[in-house]
Design goal:
The complex is a heterodimer of chains A (649) and B (196). Chain A has 649 residues and is α/β, with parallel strands linked by helices. Helix content of chain A is 28%, strand content 25%. The mean pLDDT of chain A is 94. Strand 24 of chain A pairs parallel with strand 1 of chain B, so a sheet runs across the interface.
Chain lengths: 649, 196
């Protein structure tokens, strides 16, 4: 017979205020195999843990139940305590009599006491049949993949590389920078965004620990934390990177021009071009959809003029295989598609543009060389309207969340506009102004004061073209008046949405996304940079809308977490996973289909299903689906579950 | 694309022209009062604490907003600007240091300059009686001040009679005025202020 110990915590008055802990300890103590039953005011405190340790030593216990709060709080605490006395930590279980009993039955004290007893008895049933288990040690690959070459990916890569870890940085576009490369100046310091970014991108390019793959995408991922196997697809640029000097002669000579997405439709680019001037890497890429050589084979201009003979039309996509131990997903954002914003005249009225387009307009290297000129006739707009919360905070038709950056960049836009056009009048339609970071509120108030901005509180109802101007109908709730503005140009602060293709990527990584496509974190407060899939970390707007300062902080946090993860040679994993009774398994393969972690596989030699212990997360899906009851979960066997149920019914 | 909207039904202010008027009235009020009215973010602390706000046709926070929007006629023609008793609760509490009492004073002056009559009957006379009382003794003396007001306005202030008696019985209404020491300086201040 086992010798079990039961330790009941008062949790101050949290448990003892409802459950009669003394009588529970007494009753449980009378059970035959319970050698020791006691209570204490705070079992998790050092003296409380000492009671547990002494009892194990003095009473020779071989199983422990601690009746206290949720196992997510202190399971680890007590497992460590029992381990220090030489007991296998998996022989210690938590009976949750706080969240699942005292807190929910504060008015029914007698019943709560009875329920607490039952919960402890059920947990005793489990402990009686628990096996002694050892943590699973997994070898670890100490390299890191960073997906996304915006400011988040760049920061994470540099931090990791500085920490001595090898990094593979993957960028879908032809150059690093992400959306930050499109910005003019940052708030609240009004520093030129590009200069700050350029110093970082150059650092990445020259860093010996960073392997940079631009114009590349992740095609396939296999494996698990510590051991991910990657297939990277490096798209053909048609330019031999090692030969190209970035002289730009090809770009000058290319006869094909098309509308540039980078310039938000306001500028043109060539069929062979850089993503933007002085990009990193500073090597052009041929867009095969637009290049005449690829369309009808009529043009070879770039090949003819290239002094280095670097144009390779026949270049093909490359598949690169690699291995890493951890992955940072820094996929960033897109703006809400303009096709769906008809109510703001967006896409229909040329002088209605979005925030990023205005950023390009304000950028010295942008389509207007930094001058504010309205797209329709290139006149300086004298009346400007900025509309906030376009497609944000509208659960019915658009996105329910706040995009977080629009309030500040709109104030910045209006400030820069007023500096450039001192006799112009900016009007800003808003619902609330959210300026919640360091220096933001001060920036905003100072801007309003100095620049005489007129904020109108209310959403606009209608934006339409009238006599060469854009008319905006709305209301100002602060005066209760309907207002109408005839503006020369309108800038929409459109919602941030996850970058296109994130859902597919998340599926490959087995990471989860929310209903809008933002990657979900393991815990919004306590594990905000970890995905619920181990080894996958999140940085930047792919997780939720955020500004550059928050993005950089989060990226550094992922780097720091990963450095901690990779600081050991072996990774210890919980052994509470599935196992297969080889004598029963018929090899039907249902478990292989159902496993969300790809932890189940058929063993072709024996015709049965096996468990990859490093991949299994112990979710139990295979156990529930097995028609022969051949799968079981360690320390949660069917026998244990039935015994537990028996105590309750 | 044009839309069908009945403009008679909802009165639309066209801000294009108002924009310029807005900034000019705002600038005028800012200059006259010396208060930085652009800073107001409508927290409503002023109105929440104002003892006369419940009787005003436009609340103090709305007065500032309407100035920002250039609604000169409505602001200067309101009774609110005359109801303000300059207790300074608003200015003391305002997070942006806007002294609405000072602003209200400036607005009253602007209204008088523009020849806009006060919406409240006799309110000029009340203000006048107060100022005269201060002029005489350096501080207000309620009894003589009210006598002067009643004589000039023929308003017997019947509804104020009972509270007045109560205050008198508590000794809050001394019969004889007491004068301050520096009446000479007060005289000089008045001379300087009335000199155009």
């Amino acid at each position: 017979m086992k010798r079990l110990g039961v330790f009941i915590c008062h949790c101050g008055v949290n448990i003892a205020g409802t459950v009669d802990v003394k009588s529970v300890a007494e009753k449980i103590g009378k059970i035959e195999d319970v050698a020791h039953s006691t209570d204490y005011i705070y079992m998790c405190s050092e003296p409380g843990q000492q009671i547990v340790r002494e009892a194990i030593r003095d009473q020779g216990l071989d199983g422990v139940v601690v009746a206290c709060c949720s196992p997510s709080m202190h399971e680890n605490t007590f497992r460590k305590a029992v381990k220090s006395q030489g007991m296998n930590p998996y022989l210690c279980e938590i009976a949750n009599i706080r969240e699942q009993c005292s807190w929910v039955h504060q008015k029914e004290k007698e019943e709560a006491t009875r329920k607490a007893e039952e919960i402890i008895q059920a947990t005793l049933e489990k402990v009686r049949r628990n096996e002694q288990l050892e943590a699973i040690a997994v070898a670890i690959n100490r390299r890191v993949l960073v997906i996304g070459g915006g400011i988040a990916g760049i920061t994470a890569s540099l931090d990791l590389a500085e920490g001595g870890y090898e990094v593979i940085l993957l960028e879908r576009e032809a150059a690093l920078g992400g959306h930050m490369a499109q910005l003019s100046r940052t708030f609240p310091d009004l520093d030129p965004a590009f200069n700050g970014l350029l110093s970082k991108t150059l650092e990445v390019e020259g860093h010996p620990k960073i392997q940079l793959y631009c114009y590349s995408e992740l095609e396939e991922v296999k494996g698990y934390v510590g051991n991910f196997e990657l297939v990277i697809r490096k798209k053909a640029t048609s330019v031999a990177g090692e030969k190209c000097t970035g002289c730009g002669v090809c770009i000058e000579n290319c006869p094909v021009e098309y509308v540039s997405e980078f310039e938000r439709g306001m500028g043109m680019r060539k069929a062979i071009d850089l993503l933007y001037p002085s990009s990193v890497p500073n090597k052009p890429v041929i867009d095969r959809e637009h290049c005449r050589h690829f369309i009808d084979g009529t043009c070879h201009r770039c090949e003819e003029v290239c002094p280095e003979k670097a144009i390779h039309f026949e270049q093909e996509d490359e598949r690169i295989l690699d291995k890493v131990g951890a992955i940072v997903v820094a996929t960033g954002y897109d703006l809400y598609p303009k096709e769906q914003l008809g109510e703001y005249g967006y896409g229909e009225i040329p002088d209605v543009i979005d925030g990023l387009a205005f950023e390009r307009m304000l950028s010295p290297d942008g389509p207007t060389k930094g001058k504010i000129l309205r797209p329709s006739d290139r006149k300086v707009p004298k009346e400007m309207v900025f509309i906030q919360c376009v497609a944000s905070r509208d659960p019915d038709r658009y996105m329910p969340y706040c995009s977080r950056i629009c309030c500040m960049y709109t104030a910045k836009h209006a400030k820069i506009y007023k500096e450039q056009v001192p006799d112009g009048q900016p009007y800003i339609f808003y619902m609330d102004i959210r300026s919640d970071c360091k220096g933001y509120e001060e920036f905003l108030q100072k801007t309003i004061e100095e620049k005489g901005l007129l904020y109108l509180r209310g959403r606009v109802s209608r934006v339409f073209q009238d006599d060469g101007r854009v008319r905006i109908l709305g209301v100002d709730t602060l005066t209760g008046k309907m207002v109408e503005v005839a503006a020369d140009m309108v800038v929409l602060a459109t919602a941030i949405v996850p970058s296109h293709g994130v859902k597919d990527l998340a599926a490959k990584l087995r990471a989860t996304v929310d209903r809008h496509g933002f990657l979900t974190e393991a815990h919004i407060k306590l594990y905000p940079v970890e995905s619920s899939t181990k080894g996958i970390y999140l940085a930047g707007c792919g997780q939720s809308p955020k500004d550059i300062s928050d993005t950089v902080s989060q990226a550094s946090a992922t780097a720091s977490k990963i450095q901690a993860l990779l600081s050991t040679d072996k990774l210890l994993q919980d052994p509470l996973i599935a196992f297969v009774d080889e004598g029963i398994c018929s090899g039907c393969g249902i478990c292989v289909e159902i496993c969300p972690y790809e932890a189940r596989e058929m063993d072709p030699r024996h015709g049965i299903s096996i468990v990859h212990s490093a991949l299994c997360q112990g979710c139990g899906a295979c156990i529930a689906s097995c028609p022969n009851n051949a799968c079981e979960l360690r320390n949660t066997s069917a026998n244990q579950v039935f015994r537990i149920l028996d105590t309750f019914v | 694309m044009r839309i069908a909207i009945k403009r008679e039904e909802i009165k639309l202010e066209t801000l294009t022209s108002v924009g310029k008027v807005a900034s000019s009235f705002l600038e005028e009020a800012k200059k006259k009062s010396g208060e930085n009215l652009g800073l107001c973010y409508q927290c409503l602390k002023c109105t929440a604490g104002c003892p006369t706000a419940p009787y005003m046709d436009i609340r103090p926070n709305n007065i500032i907003r309407m100035i920002q929007m250039g609604m000169k006629k409505e602001v200067l023609g309101s009774s609110a600007i005359w109801f303000c008793v300059y207790c300074q609760t608003c200015g003391t509490r305002c997070p942006n240091e806007i002294h609405i009492g000072v602003l209200m004073d400036a607005l009253r002056e602007m209204a008088m300059e523009e020849g806009i009559p006060a919406k409240e009957k006799n309110i000029h006379l009340f203000h006048e009686a107060f100022i005269q009382s201060v002029r005489r003794g350096g501080r207000a003396h309620e009894v003589t001040m009210l006598m002067e007001y009643i004589l000039k306005s023929k308003d017997l202030m019947k509804d104020s009679l009972l509270p007045g008696v109560k205050l008198f019985l508590k000794g809050k209404f001394p019969l004889l005025p007491s004068f301050i020491k520096g009446r000479g300086e007060i005289k000089k201040i008045f001379e300087k202020c009335t000199k155009k």
